[in-house]
Amino acid sequence: MPDRNFLAVGELDRIIDHLAEQTLPVSTLDQVDAATRDMGGMTFAMAATAAARGDNALLGVLPEDLPRRKAMIRPRLRMMIAALGAGVTSLCEHTQQIRPLLLSCDPPTLVCMQPACIAKVDQNAQRQGFRWDNHCDGCGRPTEVVFPYMTTLGPLSISGHLCKPCSTEMTSAAQQLVSEAMARKDPCPCGSGRRFKRCHGRVA
Fold it and tell me: Is 77 helix (H, G, I), strand (E, B) or coil?
């Protein structure tokens, strides 16, 4: 796999601030919002399934508090930039459109979320083999043990492998956000029928 560039916090913050200042045509913003909502529905279903299995999943939206929002966007943005910088293979013709997309870090591939196109990810992985370079997809540090991880950034779903510190950091941030967003007596979003405090709230 080509060398990847993992940006520092200051560089990521400058990009986030720059993007926040950009003005796009209303029609483009509408398309991005629609694609983001579609992705939210897809990932909520995937997260609920993961939570039902006992895995960790973020069921909710990014916090309104700007410093915390930046803190949660940084690792997602770093993963995205590193993967794109390594040279991404587009697996379907829909990736030129504003729609929900999946960016896989291993190997770097981009595909839309239609089931027929998603199937091309596995086909490509089988054809090329696992190209992981013994580095975490979140921070770039060498690691011998990795943990599968999937997150979203707007209409983009990002799939990669994280080292233990990155996995722990991102999981803890997601658990804290879920715990704050969910009332203790609310039904657990995993669909178990139990109250949040008696189900995944015990972990969070």
Answer: helix
* Neighbouring C-beta atoms of residue 68, cutoff 10 Å: 15
Largest CA distance in the chain: 49
Tokens of residue 115, six digits: 């089931």
Closest CA to 170 of 144, 152, 189: 152
Question: What's the pTM?
Answer: 0.73
Per-residue model confidence as pLDDT tens digits over 115-142: 898 888 878 777 776 666 788 998 989 9
Q: How far is CA 74 from CA 10, 114, 170, 204, in A?
A: 10, 27, 11, 22
Residue whose pair of structure tokens reads 């996995």 in the numeric block: 167
Domain boundaries, the chain: 9-198
- Residue-wise pLDDT tens digits, 54-94: 555 554 455 566 777 788 888 889 999 988 888 888 888 99
